[in-house]
Specification:
Helix content of chain A: 25-40%
CATH architecture of the domain at 1-79 and 195-252 in chain A: 3-Layer(aba) Sandwich
Strand order of the largest sheet of chain A: 6-7-8-3-9-10
Distance between the termini of chain A: 43 Å
Distance between the termini of chain B: 34 Å
Oligomer: heterodimer
Number of domains of chain B: 1
Mean pLDDT of chain A: 88
Shape of chain B: elongated
Helix content of chain B: over 70%
Mean pLDDT of chain B: 93
Number of helices of chain A: 9
Number of strands of chain B: 0
């Protein structure tokens, strides 16, 4: 379980997070949603420790992550995997080397075991053998995301973080990526946190959803319940979302 | 402007503090060091050879024309060319050229990694990006730049000799005698010391600019340009300081 308590963050005069509390459920797909500028990326980066919050705590299964020294954080980081918005694959390495990279650094496995683990992860995200020696730049956006997922899970982490995993993908590929994230979460029992503005993802994989707006948490609850909410800000967001557009166009 | 300079200087030293940390995996750092040696050092050999050959040739032509006097033996032209190449042209000019080639490569590659979140990916994995990405580059530069400068010295002397001989500007035997006459090994120490300092400046300053890029592709280009300007200024300044300290 990931607990966020009173997180605040400002960049100069601009307050981006204004004291947020949330509880992200273990073994589930937790979605942080909100429109651009709502603070969800800063929230996610604060949770993974890429941004140091000005105030508040992040507890990873009761361990106060925000108060830890960097040395202790490094150990805990091996329990984390992250998929970045632009995939963030290392362009100087091949697909296979990208997935192998965390193992080379942190695993005590033999070379053969590493080969097996890499092959398993790439197979799990359905990357064909023919792509293994390619440079990430030679892959499509969807395949890059899948390789990034393979790299994120190669150390068998407890926590998986995904920042806008559907960014730049067509709707069909977005659904494939969403489903893959959900399958992996269930299969490996990970606590997954996904940042997205896609309402389809909420209905597709959102076990637990947190809606943010202007640096505040507006709503938190089980995914499908968001459609039942009568809170005006929630209704506004859902109303403006892509889902509504699709429903509206379908009704037309 | 002055406060900006000191803030930048402070940030540079903090950055160096982050770079010189204990590696998470010595083996991976060593692999990266080997890659960087090839990328930054080996790939620069053809450029250094080409420049040095012609630099030596031009130096011989200019010196021979200016010392074209029956009372000045050709040996002195050889001495002048040797000292010019050894003391200044090889370490300083080659370093300035490497600042353009290697320095801009370092700043643009790190800048690209920054804006494409590759550095964040390293950090999330528990790898210190400053150390993993920069330390092997500094190590490779410190090791390989002196080798390049030694190459440059030999190629410069060869170019000077060949130009003097082919253009019949000097008597080749007398000229060659000048290369060996009253040779001071300390000048090699001076030359290589300068090179090591310049190598550190080039690799660390360009890395600092690349590491702190914010924005997108345009900012990566701007950082690269700023890095080359800053490195050139620093090399010229430290060239003066080291010359004053080591040759006075």
């Amino acid at each position: 379980m990931i607990e966020v308590r009173g997180i605040k963050k400002a960049f100069g005069d601009q307050e981006v997070l204004k004291g947020i509390d949330m509880v992200l459920q273990p073994g589930q797909c937790n979605l942080i949603i909100g429109s651009s500028g709502s603070g969800k990326t800063v929230m996610l980066k604060s949770i993974v420790g890429l941004i140091q919050p000005d105030a508040g705590q992040v507890l990873l299964d009761g361990r106060d992550w925000t108060a830890m020294k960097e040395r202790d954080r490094k150990v805990l980081r091996q329990e984390m995997g992250m998929v970045f918005q632009a995939s963030a694959l290392f362009t100087s390495l091949s697909v296979e080397e990208n997935v192998r990279f965390p193992l080379d650094f942190f695993s005590t496995m033999s070379a053969a075991e590493k080969d097996q683990r890499v092959a398993f992860c790439l197979d799990r995200v359905r990357i064909p053998q023919s792509a293994l020696t390619k440079n990430p730049a030679e892959l499509s956006g969807g395949m890059q995301k899948r390789v990034a997922i393979a790299r994120a899970i190669v150390l068998n982490p407890k926590y998986l973080f995904c920042d806008e995993p559907n960014s730049g993908l067509d709707p069909e590929t977005s659904i494939v990526i969403d489903q893959l994230i959900q399958e992996i979460t269930r299969e490996f029992g990970m606590t997954t946190v996904v940042n997205t503005h896609d309402m389809n993802s909420v209905l597709e994989i959102g076990d637990h959803v947190v809606l943010m707006r202007h640096g505040y948490k507006v709503w938190e609850g089980a995914g499908p319940d968001i459609l039942q909410s009568t809170d005006q800000e929630v209704v506004d967001y859902v109303f403006r979302s892509a889902l509504f557009k699709r429903v509206r166009s379908a009704l037309k | 402007m002055l406060s900006g300079f000191f803030r930048g200087l402070g940030s540079y030293f903090l950055f160096l503090g982050a770079v010189f940390r204990r590696p998470e995996s010595w083996r991976e750092y060593f692999k990266s060091f080997v890659r960087e040696t090839e990328l930054l050092g080996m790939s620069s050999i053809p450029l250094v050879v080409f420049i040095s050959l012609f630099m030596g040739a031009v130096l011989t032509i200019q010196t021979a024309i200016n010392l074209d006097d029956p009372f000045i033996p050709d040996m002195y032209i050889g001495i002048a060319v040797r000292e010019g190449i050894l003391l200044e042209f090889a370490p300083t000019i080659v370093s300035l050229i490497l600042a353009g080639k290697v320095g801009s490569n370092i700043s643009s590659s790190l800048g690209t990694m920054r804006v494409t979140e590759q550095m964040d990916a390293l950090q999330v994995m528990g790898i210190n990006p400053a150390s993993y990405l920069v330390l092997p580059k500094i190590g490779a530069s410190l090791l390989f730049f002196p080798i390049l400068v030694i190459f440059s010295i030999f190629m410069g002397l060869l170019g000077g000799y060949l130009a003097g001989d082919w253009l019949h500007l000097v008597n080749p035997d007398d000229f060659l005698l000048g290369y060996f006459d009253e040779f001071q090994p300390y000048y090699v120490v001076y030359s290589l010391t300068k090179t090591v300092v310049f190598a550190f400046i080039i690799s660390s300053v360009s890395a600092w600019y690349g590491y702190h890029v914010k924005g997108g592709a345009v900012e990566v280009g701007k950082a690269s340009t700023k890095a080359v300007v800053a490195m050139s200024f620093s090399i010229i300044l430290f060239n003066y300081i080291l010359t004053d300290v080591m040759l006075q």
